[in-house]
Design a protein that fits this description.
Elements: H1 2-21, H2 30-47, H3 49-57, E1 60-85, E2 88-115, H4 118-126, E3 130-131, E4 139-142, H5 151-154, E5 158-168, E6 178-182
Helix pairs in contact: 2-3
Length: 184
């Protein structure tokens, strides 16, 4: 009984943390997101020459400098980022997802999603909310693992790079991640 109560309390606390972190009053400013976006791209390109090469070819680049994930049976993640096209910020977005299952821990990571075709970028921009795995298949490369690209991967219309993982939380996926435009 005590174990169930601790789990319930932990779940409630985690849920409150996710809600508080997504509260507009605690949201980052456009300048903060832009600065963190620049830093995240610099780090990615320093870690992967293939990412830098693809970034130069991408028609649009969505950057989430820090996505925080936490869970104990019930989990969630949230981050804010910017869409860049032609070297300029085109808009600000949030990334959020939830999950239920065997999970425990807290972690943060950076995520960069490159839109390699005009069609993929237009579909993202015109969508009222965009969900990875539903609105587009995202080929995810984990820079912390192999970070390697083959010619087939490089030809996909949407390519994601996961990097800078910190903390302890098993599993990396963008499937089911909901991306929503922010007003900044």
């Amino acid at each position: 009984m005590a174990r169930v109560l601790r789990t319930l309390i932990s779940t409630v606390i985690l849920s409150l943390l996710v809600v508080v972190s997504s509260d507009p009053a605690s949201a980052k400013s456009a300048d903060e997101i832009d600065a963190e976006t620049n830093q995240a791209l610099d780090i990615l390109y320093a870690q992967s020459s293939a990412a830098k090469e693809l970034g130069a070819k991408a028609l649009g680049i969505m950057v989430f400098p820090s996505i925080t994930k936490g869970g104990l049976i019930v989990g969630g993640e949230y981050g804010e980022g910017a869409l860049r096209a032609n070297g300029k910020t085109q808009g600000y977005y949030s990334s959020a997802s939830g999950s239920i299952g065997l999970q425990i821990g807290i972690s943060s990571r950076s995520l960069v999603i490159m839109f390699m075709t005009d069609e993929a970028l237009k579909e993202f921009i015109s969508a009222d909310g965009w969900e990875a795995g539903v609105d587009a298949d995202v080929t995810l490369i984990d820079i912390g693992a192999t970070g390697s690209l083959d010619t087939t991967t490089a030809q996909n219309p949407v390519i994601g790079f996961n990097f800078g993982e910190e903390g302890l939380m098993a599993g990396v996926s963008v499937e089911g991640t909901k991306v929503t435009k922010l007003d900044r």
